[in-house]
Amino acid sequence: MLLSVEPDGDVPIYQQLRDQIVVAVAAGELAAGDSLPTTRQLAADLGINMHTVNKAYDLLRAEGLVRLGRRTGAVVVRGPGDGAPGAEVVADWERRARTLLAEAFAKGMPPPEVVERCRALLDEFSGR
Amino acid sequence: MQSSSSLPVVVPILLIGGLTLLTPMLTPRTVRFGVRVPAERLGEPALAEALRRYRAGVVAVTAVAVLIALFVATSTAAWLAGVAVEVAGTFAVYLVARAHVAAAKHEGRWFEGLKQVTVADTALRTSPEPFPWAWSLPAVLVVAATAVFGAVRYPDMPDRLVTHYDASGHPTSYADKSFGSAFALVAVQIAITALIVVLTRVTVRGKANLDVQDPHAAERQRRFVAIMSRCLLLFAAATALTLAVTALTTWDVIGSTGWTPVLLLAPVAIATVGLVVVVVRVGQGGSRLPVDAAAAAAAAGNEVAGAAAGNSAPGTVNRDDDRFWKAGVVYFNRDDPAVWVQKRFGVGWTVNFARPAALAFLVGIVVLAIVIPLLLR
């Protein structure tokens, strides 16, 4: 898969990496057991600091999406089909979804349209 | 007499001149004379003007260097003066072209409003091209054959071994026969072969600097690595062969005059020409490789990922990384953990001078270059 970062962009680089990997797992482009490059390799190919890649991998590990090995880099440990998440994960996700939905609602997006757009995005991931 | 003895002197100058003339065509299209440019600006008149002046400059410098080598100086001094003028002159011409492009880019604000990204293909790392170890066999066989032949021949070798020849192949210095003096060249053979194999192995795994504006960049990188590693391993065999012929003259198996100097240089000369031909066809990072329909179809299957990663989005260009390339040729980036990076203006690899490992390697090479001639003395 292709990973691209905007080093001088507004979003922190580690966040850009983390977000793309999460999307790839959701879309099934990365499945459980798939490897990601080692920290050094990915940092070198992108021309960015190793700590930045470490930080992204660490976030993904904390979220339970990857396992980290000293030499193997990061290995994806779960995908959409590997059971429901824990209550804590759901609560955390809901808090952030709330902010995102509030943005849409505050700026006058009609709720049916918000729901419709959310469904379209979800269908993209599940390939429907 | 003058012209026949000067002819080989002119060859390296013409070779450097020819390669320098070709170099702008061998680099990825979004790097022009060491300056990063957006693909959308490739039609800018400043780029065509810089190329025109560069070509005229290189031709003029090469003409002067050839004249110096042929008529001004004599013997070894002629060779050195001519080559020095060629190398320094063409680099000056490059710097002028680079300044021309950089000024146009700066004045025209070519990067304004564009999204600058760098891209990595994880597959290049998680399922890399296998290293073609089998292609190092010719070099290993040449070294082994030389060592075995030397061991068999040792009792019949003369008591004094020639250690140095003049330019026409006549012996100028000798050493008493010993294990050390007889097998010094085999040791050099082993060291150089090992160095080329190890360097090939580490450089091809180096940073993959993919062109964001080229949908086939990863495919090109793969084929570039596969082709270059094979060529460099064959080059190692040619170097070993040249050293084997040198050893044969030292061991008094073949004479040192007549055709021997030709035979001696032939393997490396042929391999160099072969390498140049391949490099011109492949281009830096595989930038000149034709991307066939099958590869294009495979890349199209990856289109969703490309779009999601912003790979093909309009207004998305390569990061302006000029600040990390001093004079457009010396890479210095403290953030980048890469030690080996592809050259910016040329084909092959250079190092990230901000990495201590890279500096240690360079010091090691300089030490080797000093120690090996001392060992052979």
What does this 3D model show about the protein?
The complex is a heterodimer of chains A (128) and B (377). In chain A, 27% of the residues are buried. Chain A has 128 residues and is mainly α. Chain A has 2 domains: 13-76, Arc Repressor Mutant, subunit A; 87-126. Chain A contains 5 helices and 4 strands. The mean pLDDT of chain A is 92. Chain A has helices spanning 13-26, 39-46, 50-62, 87-106, 111-126, and strands spanning 2-5, 35-36, 66-69, 73-76. The longest helix of chain A is centred in the C-terminal third of the chain and has 20 residues, at 87-106. Chain B has 377 residues and is mainly alpha-helical. Chain B contains 11 helices and 10 strands. Chain B has helices at 2-26, 45-72, 75-108, 123-126, 137-153, 179-204, 217-250, 260-282, 293-300, 303-308, 356-376; strands at residues 31-32, 35-36, 115-121, 160-165, 171-176, 316-318, 325-326, 330-331, 340-342, 349-351. In chain B, the strands form 5 sheets. Chain B has a two-stranded antiparallel ribbon. Chain B has a two-stranded parallel ribbon with strand order 3-6. In chain B, β4 (160-165) and β5 form a beta hairpin. Chain B is globular, with a radius of gyration of 24 Å. Classes of the chains: A mainly alpha (128), B mainly alpha (377). At the A-B interface, β1, α1, β2 and α2 of A face β3, α4 and α10 of B. Chain A: Pfam families: GntR.
